Amino acid sequence: MPTSLLKDLENDIIFGVYPPGSRITEDSVMEAYDVKRHVVRHAFAELESHGLLVHRPRRGVEVVDYTPDEVDALYDLRIVLETAAARRTPLPVAPALIEQLRDIASQHEAALRREDFRGVYELNQRFHERQYSCCDNPRLADLIARHARMAQPIRVVKYDDKGHMTAIVDQHRAIIDAMTRTSTDAYETAVRNHLPASAEAYRILYERRFGQRRAGRP
Questions:
Q1: Whole-angstrom Cα distance, residue 35 to residue 58?
Q2: What is the three-class DSSP state of 175?
Q3: Nearest Cα to 149, choosing from 69, 78, 60, 45?
Q4: How far apart are CA 173 and CA 194, in angstroms?
Q5: What is the pTM of this model?
Q6: Over the stretch 90-110, which tens digit does the pLDDT of each residue have?
Q7: Comparing C-alpha atoms, which of 189, 182, 194, 186 is closest to residue 158?
Q8: Alpha-carbon distance 90 to 27, whole Å?
Q9: What is the pLDDT of residues 118-143, one digit of tens each?
């Protein structure tokens, strides 16, 4: 399967070209991306395994639409996984990897200044993949990567909030700084501080979308 389809379709789902809860068909993707049916089916299977698509009987394939409670559960799990990885990371991390993280963080900040939000997303993914590559348990690192992908539609709701994104840049710096030192507690704290804000923002947006409709029900 062309890797470009999986990447492009994943990005389009994350950035709302296919909104949460919308139906997505093989035929529409074949036409939009000029690919064969078997390629689309493979991409759908991959994105379903990533938690971005869901197959519903008699309804077909839909873009996942999390409730706030589901988001809270996902972020609770991410905190468990990522703090566990922090505790299993030998500190300080090798200087070469620290330099890689600093370079990615700088590129991420530059993409944010340009308002290149797809670049921000990809660089954020790269930053955390490198971060958790230091963990002594590769299966744990794989689980973190999988659940981070599931969380991306939640995280991007704050990409145009400059205050929030400035805090993200600072949090990346704090993570790197903690990885240059020897305190596992400090590193775990830096990891934990990086997670909750987007989940809270998603709940607010969800209530704006559905709160009034629910309130009007008998």
A1: 25
A2: helix
A3: 78
A4: 11
A5: 0.86
A6: 999 999 999 999 999 999 999
A7: 194
A8: 49
A9: 999 999 999 999 999 999 999 999 99
